[in-house]
Structures are given as C-alpha cells and as structure tokens.
UniProtKB/TrEMBL annotation:
GO terms for biological process: methylation. GO terms for molecular function: S-adenosylmethionine-dependent methyltransferase activity. The keyword Membrane does not apply. The keyword Methyltransferase applies. InterPro entries: Methyltransf_11, SAM-dependent_MTases_sf. This is Methyltransferase domain-containing protein. It holds the Pfam family Methyltransf_11. Residues 59-150 form the Methyltransferase type domain. Keywords: Methyltransferase, Transferase. It comes from Aeromicrobium choanae.
Amino acid sequence: MGTTDTTAADAVQQDTELKSKHRRMWGLGDYPRVAREIVSPLGAVLVDALAVGRGERVLDVAAGTGSAAVRAARRGATVVASDLTPELLEAGRAEHPDVDLTWDVADAEALPYEDDSFDVVMSCIGVMFAPHHQQAADELVRACRPGGRIGIVSWTPEGTIGQLFATMKQYVPPPPPGASPPPLWGNEEHVRSLLGDRVGDVQVRRQTLPVIHFGDGEQFRDYFAAHYGPTIAAFAAHADDPERTAALERDLAALGEREGSRSEAGFTMQWEYLLVTAEVR
C-alpha cells in the first residue's frame, strides 16, 4: 500500500472514530428532555417558514427527536427523520407514536438517499453539528429536487448557545483537522458560501427563542451539565481535576447570568438563531 492509500485509510479511520464520538456524546444526558422542554418550538418555526404542504416528500436531517419532522408529518407530508444517534430517534418515536413518519439512522455527511429524492430538505439545530460543513451542505442540496426548498435553523456564534460552545472550547480537546465549529452555521456569510450558486431565493432571518426555564445563571449551568451531551462531555474531560471543574462551573454560571435578564416576569433569556431558506436550482 502506497503513502496515498495509507493517508486515505487513516482519514477514513479518523472520520469513523469522530462520528462514533459524536454519536456517544449526543447519547449522554437527556437531550430529548432539552428538546421537549425548551427548543421544540423551533421545529414549528422551520416548518412554517418552508410552508410544508400535504403530500410533499420531506427529509429532516440530523432530526434528533423530530421536533420539525413531526410537525411536517402532521401537515400531511411524507416525512423521513434521519439522525446519527439512534437513541434520539428512539426517543422521538416513543414520544410521538401516533405520528406517521420514517425514522432512519443516517450520517448527515453521507445521506443514504438518491439524488433529488425530496421536495423539502430541512434541519433544525441539527446539521450544524456535523463536523465537515461543506460535505453536509452538499448532501442537503443533493437530496433535494430542483425547485425544492432547503431550510436550516442554527444557533448563531453570538447568541447564547454559540457562546456556550465558545465558553466550553477551552475545556475540551481541539477538534480534528477539517472539523468546523457548529455555530458557524449561524453565520449568514458562511451558510451562503456553503450552499453557493446551487440555490436561489435565499431568505435569511436572525430571530430569538424566548427561554423562561431558568431562575438564574446557576440553574442554566446545572441544567446543561445534567442534560446536554456536549456540556456533560466537557465536565467529563476534567473529572479528575477539581480546579478545572470548578472553573468550568463558574464560567457557565457567569454566561447564564450575562445572557439572562430579570424583570417582574422572572429570569428570561433570548437564544438567538439564524433561519435560512432557499430554493434549489
């Protein structure tokens, strides 16, 4: 085997290990609870923006527990919800036993569907976590028919969840070469460059998700430390280092305080996201 073959084999092995790590990370904690209690309204936002209609073929990429997929199916669309993490799909299926849709284990960077298979391809705070952004974007476009629509909701780098990842960055190992930070999908210029001239009628909106689930920054920290896979992984990386653990705890609580505001209604946060819709040419 030559050097080129060895390098290619090593790259495949590294990618396989990275995907396995991602799958395990999203299986930690209780992301279905986070989806159910806080972020599920984003699914309706995306489906409404795409005007999903009865009889349309819809693919939800990195669907998680299916907050967008379920809403599309309830509109009468024929829906496939795909995700890398089987545990999330199982939770979605169990939570919505009355909804008729297909749940598929699939890699957003290598979707197991033919070209031009769907009228609508969408992803709600999901595809942003695929490590190789261009590969994932190429798959979104490939699976959607010409004249079909693509819709993506992603946390922005400047918003609360983008800042959560920025805060945790110093506490986790650096990503492997070629992997990009998830919140970049919340940058308009980045998304436009990923999709390129293969799409038209691009509509971009920055919006916020109101969150009233927490009483203060410490409750925000504790919730993520208990239920959110990436945060659990960050704490696990320093399980034997009390000082680093304490520093991470302080930084996350401080972030929660900065991102929240107090009024007579209580402690409120506004989690910013980017909503992008486009038509495939």
